[in-house]
Amino acid sequence: MEAALDAGLAAQAPGAEARQTIVLSVPSIVCGNCIRSVENTLRALRGVEAARANLTTKRVSVVVDPSVRSTIDLAAALEHAGFPAAPLIENAETEQAARVSELIPRLGVAGFAAGNIMMLSVAVWSGEASDMDSSLMDLFHWLSALIALPAVAYAGQPFFKSALAALRSRRLNMDVPISLGVLLATGMSLFQTMRSSEQVYFDASTSLLFFLLIGRVLDERMRTKARGAAENLIGLRATNATLVAPDQTTKLVLASTLKPGMIIAVAAGERIAGDGQVISGQSDIDESLISGETRPRAVSIGDTVYAGTINCAGTLRVRITAAEDNTLLSEIGRLMLNAEQSRGRYVRLADRASQIYAPAVHVLGLLTFILWMALGAPWDQSLTHAIAVLIITCPCALALAVPAVQVAAMSRLFSKGVIVKAPDGLERLAEIDCVVFDKTGTLTTGELRLETSDGVDVAALGRAGSIAGMSKHPFAQALAKAARAEGIQTRAVEGVEEVPGSGLVTTSMGFEEKVGSAAWVGVEDRNASIWYVAEGKPAVGFVFVDELRKDASACVSELRRAGYLVKLLSGDRRTAVAQTAAACGIEDWTAEVRPDQKLDAIEVLKARGYKTLMVGDGLNDAPALAAGHASLSPASAIDIAQTTADAVFQGDVLRPVIEALSVAKAARRLALQNFAIAIVYNSIFVPLAMAGYVTPLIAALAMSGSSIMVTANALRLRSKALRLPNVGASA
Amino acid sequence: MTSLAWLVPAALTLGMMGLAAFLWALRSGQFDDLEGAKWRAISDDNDRMATESDRSRGDDV
C-alpha cells in the first residue's frame, strides 16, 4: 500500500520524489480515538503530507518531506502525545507481506473458478441421472475448461514454483504431488472433454487449489502477524542517541545511524545506544542484559561499555567504537553463527511425510497403469485409471494437515502473549525434553527487591529510603520502593548529592548521612548490597535480591513433575544463583558461566541425547538460544536474543513457557491425527481408484470431505483444555 | 433449453463482477486495516474536512 501511496502522490504533485514514506510502529494504538490522535498529531506537523494509522498492524505510515522532518522528529512528536513509537527497518517484513498480498488474489480467482465450475458440474452430475443430452454435457464441460484453464494457470503458480524449486535442488516437498495432481487432473480433463467423455475433473482440480490456498493464506497471515508483533516489540527497545557534534551542539539521532568515532552523551537512566569507550564522566552500568550479572558495574574514563546496557548514575560521554574482532559482541556473533548452522538441517514434519508419500503415490499410479495394460485394457483407459489414482491421492488433506494445526496453535499462543516467529518453531518445541533457564530477567523479573526475612531496621530503612528516593539509580529506587512497601512514609530530603559509582550523601540533618556501596561508606562486610551510615552510628546493610517471577517455582515444579530435565545456567555470582536455584527448586545449576560455556553446556546436553529448550534474555544467552533445539525469550530481552529465539513471550509470569510447550505438543498430536485421517481416506479411495470405480463426483466428495475433516480436527486446538504432557508420553 | 443460452452467460458475468469487485477492493487497500475500519466508521471526525486533501490522497490508494 505504501508503494501505491507513493505512486499516487508522485502522479499528483510535481517534485514528489522528494517525499518519503516512513513506517512507525506504535503498539499503543488500541481504539478509534488513538487512530485519530495519532493521525492528527502527525498531520499537524510541518512537512507531513499524509498520515494513516493501521489498527491491525499497530503501525502508522507517514508521507513526509525528509528535508523538513526526520523519522526521529515523528517518533518524538508521537511520544510527546502519549504514543511511544519506533521506526521500523522494513525489508524482511515487506517481503512477507508481499507474499500474502500475492496469495489473496489467487485465492479469489480459485474460489470463483471452483464455485462456478462446481455449479456446472452439479448440473452434469444430476443430468447423468436424468436426461441431459451429450451435446449439452459437452457444452458444460467446455465452459468448465474455459474457466478452469486460466484459473489453474494463475492460482496454481505458488505451488508450481515451489515444486519446481524443490525438484531443481533434488528434493521432494508436498508441492510436488500437489502440482502433479492438479496439472494431471486439468490436462486429462481437457483431453477427455475433447473426446466427449464423462471423466472430467475440472471441479476437483480447482476446488483443490481453493482449499490449499485457504490453508496457505491463513498460514502466511498468522506468520506475518507474529513477525509484525515481534518487530514492534524490538522496535520499542531500539534506542535513540544524543549525538554530540564537534562544536558541542547535541542532536537526537537513531541508534542505527551511529558510526565509529561519533561521540554520544548518555544521561542517567538511559540505555546506551552503541558499543564504545567512556571518554568522560563516571557511573554505574547495569549490564544484566549482557552478562546476567545483577550488580551494576562501575565505569570511568577508558572503560568499554556495550549497547543495550543502562547507565544508572552519572552522565557519560561515549566514543562509539567499531565492532572489533576481540570484543564481546563479535565473539558472540561468531558463536551464534556456528550454533545456527546445525538448526538449519531440521526437516519439517510435512516434508518428512511428503518424502515417503510422493514416491509411494507415483509408484501406485504407475502400477495401476501397468496392471490395466496387463489385463488387456486399451492404453487410454489404463492411463485414465492411473491418473484417477493420482488425482484421488493428491494430498489435499495431507497438505492441510500441518498448516491448519499450526495456524490454530499459533493463534492460541498469540492470544496468550506468546509470539511464535520461527516457521518450524512449534514442531521443534514439541520434541523438547529438557529446559535450560537463564537466571536474570528470565527466572527473575530483573527487578531488585529488599530481602526482609531477617527483619529490618525500620528507622534506618525509612531514612535511607527517603534519601534514596532522590536518585534514579536502580538500587536507590529499589530501596525507596522497599521502604514504602514496609509501610514507611518516605520524605523529601534536601541537599542530596549523588557520587557516581559510589552512592548518595547528605548533611541536611546537621550530620553526614551516606547511602551507598560498602567500600564507599567504609564497611568491610560484602554481603549486603547497600549500606546506610549516619555519622557516629553503626552502619546498616540492606540485602537486595533479584525478584523471582511470581510463578517461577510453580512452573519449574510442573516441568519437573512432567519429567523434564530442568537446568539453570547463569552468568551471575554463585551465591545469587544458588539462592535462585533453591527458591525455584532447581537442583542442577551452574553459576558464573560465560556465553561460550553456556553454548558448550547446550552441546553437551545435545550429545547426551536431550532436545533442549533454552529460555533466556541476555546477550550472553544468544549463542545458547541459537544452539538449543528450540528457544524462548521474554519480551524484555535484548534484541539479539529476541531475534534468535523461536518465540517471544510477553508478561511478567513464566507460565507462557509451559503454555508454549503444551500447545506445541498438542499441535503435534493433532497433526499426526490428521495424517492418520489422510491415510484412512487414502486406503479407502486408492483401491477404488485403482479398480477404476472413481467418478468425478466421488473424487469431488472425497476431496472436500477429507479436507473439511482435517481442518475441523485442527480447530479443536483452539478450545481444548490442555495439560503439560509427560516427557516420552505417546504423542 | 434456450433459456440456458442467456442464463449461463448471465451467471458467469455476475460471478466475474463479484471477482472483479473483490480484486478491486483488495487492490485499493480495503482489507489493509479491518480493525481500524470499524472505528473509522463510527468516528464523526470533523477535522477530516480540514485535511480533506490528505484524506483523498491517503484513501484512494
Helix content of chain B: over 70%
State the assembly state of the protein chains: heterodimer
Kindly report the average pLDDT value of chain A.
Answer: 82
How many domains in all of chain A? Answer: 5
Low-confidence stretches of chain B: 47-61
> Which descriptor suits the 3D outline of chain A?
elongated
In terms of DSSP E residues, the strand content of chain A is 15-25%
Count of strand segments of chain B: 0
Beta-strand residue percentage of chain B? under 5%
What is the helix/strand order of chain B?
Answer: HHHH
The side-by-side strand order for the widest beta sheet of chain A comes to 14-27-26-25-15-23-24
Q: Specify the biggest β-sheet of chain A.
A: 7 strands, mixed
Which two chains form the greatest contact, residue counts included?
A-B, 35 and 31 residues
> Over the alpha carbons, how many angstroms does the gyration radius of chain A reach?
32 Å
Count of discrete alpha- or pi-helical segments spanning 4 or more residues of chain B: 4
Label the structural class of chain B. mainly alpha
Helix/sheet category of chain A: alpha+beta
Counting DSSP H or I runs of 4 or more residues, the number of helices of chain A is 25
Shape of chain B: elongated
Query: Mean pLDDT of chain B, nearest integer?
Result: 74
Q: Note poorly predicted spans of chain A.
A: 1-16
Describe the model.
The complex is a heterodimer of chains A (731) and B (61). With 731 residues, chain A is of the alpha+beta class. Chain A has 5 domains: 2-88, Alpha-Beta Plaits (2-Layer Sandwich), CATH 3.30.70; 95-228 and 349-408 and 665-718, no CATH class; 261-321, Calcium-transporting ATPase, cytoplasmic transduction domain A; 418-445 and 548-650, Rossmann fold; 452-542, Calcium-transporting ATPase, cytoplasmic domain N. Chain A is 52% helix and 16% strand. Chain A contains 25 helices and 27 strands. Chain A has a 7-stranded mixed beta sheet with strand order 14-27-26-25-15-23-24, sandwiched between helices. Chain A has a 6-stranded antiparallel beta sheet with strand order 6-5-7-13-8-11, with no helix packed on it. In chain A, a hairpin with a 5-residue loop joins strand 20 (530-534) and strand 21. In chain A, helix 7 (175-194) packs across helix 12, helix 8 runs parallel beside helix 25 and helix 13 runs antiparallel to helix 24 (655-690). Chain A is elongated and about 110 Å long. Chain A starts with a helix and ends in a 16-residue tail after the last helix. In chain A, 49% of the residues are buried. With 61 residues, chain B is an all-alpha fold. Chain B has one domain (3-59). Chain B has helices at residues 3-27, 34-42, 47-50, 52-59. Chain B is elongated, with a radius of gyration of 19 Å. Chain A binds chain B through residues 1, 4-5, 8-9, 12, 31-33, 35-36, 40, 43, 49-57, 63, 101, 104-105, 108-109, 112, 115-116, 119, 136, 143, 147, and chain B through 1, 4, 8, 11-12, 15-16, 18-19, 22-23, 26, 29, 31-36, 39-40, 42-43, 45, 47, 51, 54, 57-58, 60-61.
